[in-house]
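So, could you explain this one?
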Amino acid sequence: MDGNAIVLTNGLLDHHKAKTAHGLIRGSDRYNIVGIIDHKFVGKDAGEVLDGKKRNIPVYGDIETFTATSPVKADYMIVGIATKGGVLPDEMKPFIKSAIKAGYSIVSGLHEFLSETPEIVELANVYNVKLIDVRKPKPNKDLHFWTGRIAKVACPKIPVIGTDCNMGKRTTSRFLKEAVSEAGLNAQMIYTGQTGWMQSGQYGFIFDSTLNDFISGEIEHAIVTCYENENPDIIFIEGQSALQNPTGPCGSEFLISADSDAVILQHAPKREFFHGCEGYKRTIPTLEQEIALIKMYGVDVMAVTLNTEDMTKEEALEYQKEKEASLGIPVILPLDEGVGRLAETISEFVKNYQHS
């Protein structure tokens, strides 16, 4: 645990742009989250705002109120949003400056680096705090090419990929790791995004700040290092974007370079167009089409997990029942029912696994 942290969402706590904050509210082994800064939900519990579950994380309107009234102190303030292009909104800069003046180091997962913003750097130097840009690329000398060492990994490797971006792949991956661990297996997870790092992923890399030539090698290196150090029974891999999303078509690396043994596929039934492509009108493929495409890579989808945004509970349950019958594989509602049933399926998969 690096220390206590507050998370800045500034009116976006209930919006999908605050997915970094959402992940941290659900759990982090790196930071102890002690407050949220969001003027829209002052006095509420952040967990109840997120999903109706109380987590004893209060929401404050500004930095000054937190500093003056919180019974616990903070060491860090985390920028809890993910914006298109990773740009830092101008309206958040005063909050960051206030946090620096209060003595908090700043953690950001945006592409606009605080450590390269002169006014922020100058202020951080004056108050002797750190600026931690999680998405800052590694030096080339620290990156890895794909070598084929992945063939030595003798445990199942299962990526959680999606039919679109921003639909909860990281959350499902974390749920699966926790549930399978509780079932008695040594389960590990490879993070591939900034929030995964903030949640204290030990093995992984930041996919969208890595030069394309090295992505396959970084996936392989993370998996092999995890296998050699932890001797796991199973490794889950956090997916990114989607195979057919025009703004970030990726996922084949997880299927091929990671030598995946099966896939968990996340899908949002009510989402018609790819996220960020609404004007382009590129429709998301059906579950059946995506499963067939993944099969063409030589990998089977072992289960489907649903993001039930914009669905009533009745709609979600009916869709779940229908698809489970037609596809012949488990269909799970992770946020509503957990992933315990899927953990049983995965445990059986591990038991019968034979490394080729």
User: Anything to note?
Assistant: The two ends are 38 Å apart (CA to CA).
